């Protein structure tokens, strides 16, 4: 067909279409006129009334920590915007330096409308500002949003400040921590998963001294740790020794964990590991990224703390360097008394706040909450957590199976995954279809951990002094703990630092917590 013929045909089709459309309207008007239940005037107006304009997308700026190397592209964001009728601006900042950015943005009044914190510690840092009225209270509004109203009350209660709710939470299993270890090394050396803390120490020693990688060079270490007492190895091992979870009862009174003998046992454990050369010597200055790289390069055999569910990512990176490597997970490590224990989080690992400096009124706040309400639908939650079906994951047996292209998931999805509100029980997203044996084992152990879980008795309690000084005072204990493990402080020196903690406000914290604990 020539271009001229095609043009004539197109013109004829358009003419017929317009005539048909006019005829259709006339027929509709005629039908409306014949309707005995309605007047002609009313239906004519209805027929000519212009269609309502679509609602303008809600513009939202969001600040959150980034746990990957590179900022994700807009692949997921674009799809989320379509589903939620929003225009989103994500401000990603590296997790390792996020607290600094959070503090500087707060100090300059430049926090965006939606501000993710980093963890429970940064939440505590913000409590004073929350009490000072610098963030919106959202508790009374949740009933207006059917999906947000599904969030677990017991977890929401753990995030309240002075009995009021200001936050949405990112849900996490209560006790995911444990060991990810080189099972191929253990098998080669004839070692079973450590049943107790003595066997854990012995495994670290063997992984260092007995050439588990078989290259004839003494170039491996047992434990790799990072500069984090809570989410690194220290707190997990401490719970195995029987240390309370932040606070415990002593003589009928609440007392901080570092006043218990089991805390000293844990410090001695790591001091001995370091002195023996069975862990990285500079762990107090090692970032999470560097610790992970040391493990995935094939130089370390035990990665403790954090989440056993990280085994998928660690395995992916490790087998690039050591194709025959095999990882497994373990968490049932008994203390010297033969008992099992696992510290538990209060059901969340992060929260979201809404600064009054960025959200001008309640009407704007409700529009932002409407976005989070849509995030808690299965369609949006799956998109943000798993990615695009067929590209980043497939569905098998009603569960999500990530694609083999782990780099694609890491690059495009991970940044958004860490921001999803609630958990699968409340937002309806798919659970994971796990295929890696060590990950399957990890999911079983997460359930076992809860059975011996130890809660923080102060999680839902409040102390004015802790809110204002707690993080600052904790640095005294953190520094003293590292110095003890490095051999720079003895027991008397550590106890002197505890007295320093008490004199600068710690004694008041103890008093305030006990006052509300007894009620």
Short account of what is shown:
This protein has 519 residues and is α/β, with parallel strands linked by helices. The protein contains 20 helices and 15 strands. The longest helix is centred in the N-terminal third of the chain and has 32 residues, at 3-34.
Structural features, described:
By secondary structure, the chain is α/β, with parallel strands linked by helices. It has three domains: 58-172 and 348-427, Periplasmic binding protein-like II (D-Maltodextrin-Binding Protein, domain 2); 176-343 and 430-457, D-Maltodextrin-Binding Protein, domain 2; 461-518. It is built from 20 helices and 15 strands. It has helices at 3-34, 40-48, 75-84, 98-107, 120-131, 153-158, 183-188, 197-209, 233-240, 261-276, 288-296, 311-321, 362-375, 378-386, 406-412, 414-417, 424-427, 437-451, 464-485, 491-517; strands spanning 58-66, 86-94, 114-116, 168-171, 178-182, 221-224, 247-250, 253-256, 300-305, 327-330, 342-343, 348-353, 393-396, 399-402, 453-454. The strands form five sheets. The chain has a five-stranded mixed sheet. A four-stranded mixed sheet has the order 6-9-5-10. β1 (58-66), α3 and β2 (86-94) form a beta-alpha-beta unit. The radius of gyration is 29 Å and the shape is globular. The protein starts with a helix and ends with a helix. The model is unreliable at 1-47 (pLDDT under 50).
**How many DSSP-defined strands?**
15
Helix content: 40-55%
Q: Strands of the biggest beta sheet: in what spatial order?
A: 2-1-3-12-4
Number of helices: 20
The overall average pLDDT, rounded, is 90
Uncertain spans: 1-47
For the record, the CATH architecture of the largest domain stands as 3-Layer(aba) Sandwich
Portion in strands: 5-15%
What is the name of the CATH class of the largest domain?
Alpha Beta
CATH level 3 topology of the largest domain: D-Maltodextrin-Binding Protein, domain 2
* Major sheet summary line: 5 strands, mixed
CA distance, first residue to last residue = 89 Å
Radius of gyration, whole Å: 29 Å
Silhouette: globular
CATH superfamily of the largest domain: Periplasmic binding protein-like II
SSE class: alpha/beta
């Amino acid at each position: 067909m020539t271009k001229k013929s095609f043009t004539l045909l197109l013109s004829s089709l358009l003419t017929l279409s317009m005539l048909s459309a006019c005829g259709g309207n006339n027929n509709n008007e005629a039908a409306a006129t014949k309707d005995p239940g309605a007047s002609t005037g009313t239906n004519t107006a209805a027929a000519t009334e212009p269609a309502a304009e679509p609602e303008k997308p809600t513009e939202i700026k969001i600040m959150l920590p980034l746990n990957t190397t590179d900022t994700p592209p807009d692949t997921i964001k674009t799809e989320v915007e379509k589903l939620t009728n929003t225009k989103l601006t994500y401000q990603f900042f590296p997790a390792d330096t996020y607290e600094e950015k959070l503090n500087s943005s707060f100090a300059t009044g430049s926090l965006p409308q939606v501000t993710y914190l980093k963890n429970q510690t940064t939440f505590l840092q913000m409590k004073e500002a929350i009490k000072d009225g610098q963030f919106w209270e959202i508790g009374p509004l949740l009933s207006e949003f059917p999906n947000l109203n599904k969030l677990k009350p017991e977890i929401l209660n753990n995030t309240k400040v002075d009995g009021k709710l200001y936050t949405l939470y990112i849900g996490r299993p209560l006790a995911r921590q444990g060991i990810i270890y080189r099972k191929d090394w253990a098998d080669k050396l004839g070692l079973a998963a450590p049943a107790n803390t003595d066997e854990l120490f012995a495994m670290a020693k063997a992984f260092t001294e007995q050439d588990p990688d078989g290259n004839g060079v003494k170039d491996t270490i047992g434990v790799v740790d990072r500069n984090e007492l809570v989410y690194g190895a220290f707190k997990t091992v401490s719970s195995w020794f029987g240390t309370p979870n932040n606070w415990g009862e002593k003589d009928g009174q609440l007392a901080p964990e570092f006043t218990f003998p089991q805390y000293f046992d844990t410090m001695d454990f790591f001091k001995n590991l370091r002195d023996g050369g069975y862990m990285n010597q500079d762990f107090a200055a090692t970032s999470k990224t560097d610790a992970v790289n040391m493990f995935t390069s094939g130089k370390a055999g035990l990665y403790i703390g954090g989440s056993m569910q990280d085994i998928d990512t660690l395995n992916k990176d490790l087998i690039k360097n050591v194709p025959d490597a095999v990882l497994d997970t373990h968490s049932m490590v008994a203390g010297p008394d033969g008992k099992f224990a696992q510290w538990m989080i209060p059901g969340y690992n992060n929260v979201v706040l809404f600064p009054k400096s960025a959200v001008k009124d309640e009407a704007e706040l409700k529009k932002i909450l409407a976005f989070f309400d849509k995030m808690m639908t299965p369609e949006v939650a799956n998109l943000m957590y798993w990615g695009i079906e067929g590209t980043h994951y497939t569905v098998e047996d009603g569960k999500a199976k990530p694609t083999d292209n782990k780099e694609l998931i890491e690059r495009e999805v991970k940044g958004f995954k860490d921001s999803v509100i609630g958990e699968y029980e409340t937002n309806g997203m798919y659970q994971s279809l796990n295929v890696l044996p060590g990950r399957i084992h990890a999911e079983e152990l997460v359930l076992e951990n809860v059975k011996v879980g130890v809660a923080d008795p102060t999680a839902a309690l409040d102390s004015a002094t802790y809110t204002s000084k707690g993080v600052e005072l904790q640095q005294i204990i953190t520094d003293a703990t590292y110095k003890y493990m490095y051999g720079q402080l003895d027991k008397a020196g550590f106890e002197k630092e505890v007295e320093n903690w008490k004199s600068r406000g710690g004694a008041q914290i103890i008093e305030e917590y006990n006052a509300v604990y007894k009620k």
